[in-house]
């Protein structure tokens, strides 16, 4: 390993050890590790070919992968080797790990789920490709200026990405615009614009290096690098213009996951990566098959939300226009390959495109969508429409073109059946199924929490890493005093390490024995960070009123970004920071209450915070959080949840036991009912003196003394509509927090509850989720006898 690293340093980086920077060392190590994945990767590809296996194609606009170095090293079981080699070379392993930029090619849950799925597919040995976009700029970097969010472009590709292989030979033309000709029964699309999609492959090797799949991300390039005619005419700017235009397609990740803004560039991005992926998988299929009618036996295409929903019409277009299959046959054939996952019920996030816009950019696809619509209406008169009020509704399109549609938690799936797709569900009663989300235990326990990982492995071996339900054996340890002491110590160590980091980055001193209460996720009104903050102010008031009470010391930690145009979310961020300023400097509550909000929350920060948490905030308005996956990461790492009956919280609570979960709030049915009552928010505020007082303080400028009107908008919103029922759930939430306070006072009992969480979370491994998809949707199998292992 040492020689390999030095060789890489010399011959790939052109540096000698005496002059190498941390970056050079990191690249040398990463390339060395990457070399060790290649055999497994090639062999897996060969095996999948030899067995003529069905392949899974996971199409996702986002892959929120974060850093890769630790995952890669641990899956290859090279931790000791790499650490040893670096120590011998006088280098610090941890410093090198922290040098890797966090690949933020996603907004949040949906993108992180795709990354966990890639890890599980490889670990289970299921032949699969992840297809997405190689954004030059991932999710913006967040900082705070006077408490307000400031966005700066993210620049992960300013450095070479160590893990990818550029594939200049894997390149497909992607067309836009123009018009369509119908002649002698033959249809021809004459596009007006063309770009090239070039593949960049990252190997994804599963646990213990047994199987490798590919994450293939597409980058947009101009068809011709340079317009020589313009150049020769002396028009030097025009010579580069089409080049620049082409490259904008993969330039930047859209940071708005709240509202569908119908931007042309986003539609182009969606079609760009979908069309490239379909061409790629068709090419692969036709290499060793000739009958396209067998396509569904060999190809499963999973649509991660509606973002790649144009795959339906695109696949039909390829089958009909390029391979001469009848439309009537092509539609069911495409459907048999396609499946769609729904990740949100929020109406403002459901994608739709103006018919005129879609028709201008993809004229042939609009024709095909009309034919799909007619076919659906003929077969199921009165079916909900794809085309409505001049819009193409991507949810309906995805549903109609999929043989299976899934929700991401039990509750969410029922709501999908009852709300957004109620009418389509009546027509196709077996199409909607549930696949509750999961998380990869490799990243979210094994790598991010070495203390707990070693404790578990010492107790039971490492079989749990690929078979997480083995953790139930830990339940027997609750009466083992030595184990419980070590369990508590590992949490204490993580909290001390986090306190150090927060001291350094935020300049705030924390007491590692206080309860660490954490809410990290995108800032959305439905996630109710505001309710958490109001409760914090209420607690502060109570602490000041009763200074002699035996208060449980708390640290409130927030993390998350707001979409740049989501003004209410940005006001909430500013309010958190303003309140923190006042409370953190109040001598009356010193040592009892602190608020910290480290900027630029990302995957790497989650890996730091989650293992150091005591209390996990999962407090969305019931019915709004499709699943949540952060909730699973916390519980697995021994945090207790304070939460509503929403998303996967419902199933988490069933697994960990209601006695180990702080439940509060209205149910989804009660939420719908309450909204019918006119003036429900005002009534709730009037019934709660505690809440009234907090809102009064905010409204009168207690936290913005030089700009007292700053939060009138926020307070007014709560009084006037409060769509997400912050006011209605406030008292119930406050009570649940006091139950948590009391429970925390008994450290042994708290630890026992925490252990029950860790021990009960095995079912939430994304390995279990992927087995469900493979069985119920894809009919895909590992070519290896490994199937026995994963059966
Ligand atoms: C939505 C949109 C709307 C149109 C414009 C661009 C854009 C980009 C991303 C999204 C994603 C919204 C859906 C989403 O992330 N859902 C989350 O999915 C998680 C994985 O299933 C789940 O755990 C979360 O509860 C759910 O909010």
Q: Would you kindly provide a written description of the structure presented here, covering whatever features stand out?
A:
The protein is α/β, with parallel strands linked by helices and 791 residues long. The chain is built from 34 helices and 24 strands. The strands form six sheets. A nine-stranded mixed beta sheet has the order 7-10-11-4-1-12-13-17-18, with helices on both faces. The radius of gyration is 27 Å and the shape is globular. The protein binds ligand 26V.
Bound molecules: ligand 26V
Total domains: 3
CATH topology-level name of the largest domain: Rossmann fold
Distance between the termini: 36 Å
**What's the β-strand tally?**
24
User: What general form does the structure show?
Assistant: globular
Index terms:
24 strands, 16% strand, Rossmann fold, 791 residues, 34 helices, binds ligand 26V
Summarize the structure.
This protein has 791 residues and is of the alpha/beta class.
Layout: helices, strands, pairs:
Layout: H1 2-11, H2 22-35, H3 38-50, E1 55-59, E2 63-66, H4 69-75, H5 79-88, H6 93-99, E3 103-105, H7 109-124, E4 128-133, E5 141-145, E6 148-152, E7 165-176, E8 179-183, E9 186-190, E10 193-205, E11 212-222, H8 228-232, H9 236-248, H10 264-288, H11 295-298, E12 299-304, H12 311-322, H13 327-337, E13 338-341, E14 352-354, H14 355-361, H15 363-379, E15 387-388, E16 391-393, H16 394-400, E17 404-407, H17 410-418, H18 422-427, E18 432-434, H19 441-447, H20 450-460, H21 481-506, E19 515-520, H22 529-545, E20 554-559, H23 567-584, E21 593-596, H24 603-609, E22 615-618, H25 630-636, E23 640-643, H26 649-656, E24 661-663, H27 668-674, H28 680-686, H29 689-699, H30 712-720, H31 726-745, H32 747-760, H33 766-778, H34 786-790
Helix pairs in contact: 1-2, 2-6, 7-33, 12-13, 12-15, 14-15, 22-23, 22-29, 22-31
The structure holds ligand 26V.
